[in-house]
Tubulin--tyrosine ligase-like protein 9 (Oryzias latipes), 395 residues
Amino acid sequence: MHQRPNWIEVKDDGEWDFNWCDVGWLRENFDHAYMEEHVRINHFRNHYELTRKNLMVKNLKRFQKNLEKDMGRTEASKCDFFPSTYAMPSEYHLFVEEFNRNPGSTWIMKPVAKSQGKGIFLFRKLKDIIDWKKDRSRSEEQKDAAHLDSYVVQRYIENPYLINGRKFDLRVYVLVTSYVPLKVWLYRDGFARFSSSRFSLSTIDDKYMHLTNVSVQKTAPDYDPEKGCKWQMQQLRRYLTAKYGREVVETLFGDMDNIIIRSLQSVQKVIINDKHCFELYGYDILLDHNLKPWLIEVNASPSHAPSSQEDYEMKYGLLEDTLNVVDMEGRLTGQEKRVGGFDLMWNDGPVYTEDLNLQTFGSLSFTANTHLGCVNDREKNLRQLLKPFPLQKKI
Ligand code: ADP
């Protein structure tokens, strides 16, 4: 922000036009803040409808049920991208029924509002969680009902796609500038986060093997800060294309687009749409060995802490382009389909690439305007797109 001409940092009680706040600030202040037309803030008021693990699944299940009612089973099956999940302890009995139908399967227990792998454990026996449940209900008797559903139990994906024997998940950045109408931008860069130990189902207690969070992997005894545990999305896309060919990879990336759009649609009617708000989400997606992507969670405050110089540059570009799309300076026309590393993927409907020719259009095979893991020549694009900063305008 300091690098943008004419942006001035204000002190705590100063008047501001743009606020990059944390969700705690939002909770305490949003409802009391009067905001002028041009003011922007980096979260939607009830962002947690998508970013809290239990609410995300609740909204997805409801959305899927409505789709089935209105459009049939085939359409609803396009939402089959989240592992079976139950809120704990309120859906414990439903969970036990499913658990008993799938003897021997592995489950993962996760606190709904924590991050960085904190409080997560895997289990295969009901006995393992019965004591846990007793302890929790005892301690929660004193608390109010809002705290009850504070965990989810989720089917563990036992067949993750492995590279060099290691599990990884993907971090994808998605910028929403409006929910009504839904306007969504997908960033070209992202990364895969690898675990440091070779994957195996023979032990379920090793977090370095099963949890791919960088914050977990960084504490592994053999973690090498030089090598890190990341691949850029471009590297992954190239690797998969060399191995399986372009068509397979396009299907996979198309399936990821589908996850992004449907998950956002599932909360479209619930999120309080406010023209002052935008949100840069960090999607966590896991691939299984059939190259099917699964939605693990959506983060409202994805980490912007760099783990290497390359990571720093990527995140710097991401934040800079977020500000370019939000456009406090008024340099855009509003018709852009691309701004730096962001491609407009949804604008009240799917967005297609420019070079769509009539023949392919006729056969309904037009190409989505998404380029995740493709070349990110953002600076070149920005040079062509943006007029230089107006010199004297005060922000
Ligand atoms: P947190 O918010 O604490 O990061 P996540 O839901 O992202 O919690 O889970 C942390 C990690 O655990 C993920 O990055 C992934 O590696 C692993 N994980 C989470 N859920 C599953 C699942 N259902 N199947 C397989 N691995 C999972």
Summary: The CA atoms of residues 252 and 292 lie 7 Å apart. The longest helix spans residues 246-266. The radius of gyration is 22 Å. The pocket of adenosine-5'-diphosphate is lined by residues 83, 108, 110, 114-118, 120, 154, 156-157, 169, 211-213, 284, 286, 296-297 (CB under 6 Å).
